[in-house]
């Protein structure tokens, strides 16, 4: 009888530990989801403001419009720092579905930076997206959602690389000493 009680207690303890792990995991995912939701909202606000550049009168006021959007980027930077603190080391892949918009927005940002005359930022974006792509290449991806995300990342990388190529052939690519990030 004592053996059964011990076994029951062991099983109960194991499942209690497992439940705690699941609860902690769910709490972490929710915290990440909240940060990403805030990040997406700030990104939409910035993009909405920067869209003014594409209007006829906006192109004349690029510097002013970008200057007005700059505080939003500081907020985004803080959110990314907050997000980085929440994600366990080397476990980015577990939460990839929460920020699938990021590389799409970065490739679009690269285009808008060139439009605004900022020729160094696309180089920084290309480096980051390239490093992210390299990380995904290390994974053995089958036909699943992560594979589809990787395929999307490849297209975003191609778009950013084309921007860098265009800057290079037009002689607009900043030299190493002149890049500002």
UniProtKB/TrEMBL annotation:
Domain of life the protein comes from: Eukaryota
Presence of the UniProt keyword Coiled coil in the record: yes
Pfam families in alphabetical order: Translin
SUPFAM superfamilies: Translin
Classification via CDD domains: Translin
InterPro entries for the chain: Translin (IPR033956), Translin_C (IPR016069), Translin_fam (IPR002848), Translin_N (IPR016068), Translin_sf (IPR036081)
UniProt KW keywords: Coiled coil, Cytoplasm, DNA-binding, Nucleus, RNA-binding
Keyword match Cytoplasm: yes
Subcellular localization(s) per the UniProt record: Cytoplasm; Nucleus
Parts forming coiled coils: 22-56
Family note: Belongs to the translin family.
Function per UniProt: DNA-binding protein that specifically recognizes consensus sequences at the breakpoint junctions in chromosomal translocations, mostly involving immunoglobulin (Ig)/T-cell receptor gene segments. Seems to recognize single-stranded DNA ends generated by staggered breaks occurring at recombination hot spots.
PANTHER family linked to this entry: TRANSLIN AND TRANSLIN ASSOCIATED PROTEIN X
Subunit relationships: Ring-shaped heterooctamer of six TSN and two TSNAX subunits, DNA/RNA binding occurs inside the ring.
Protein name: Translin
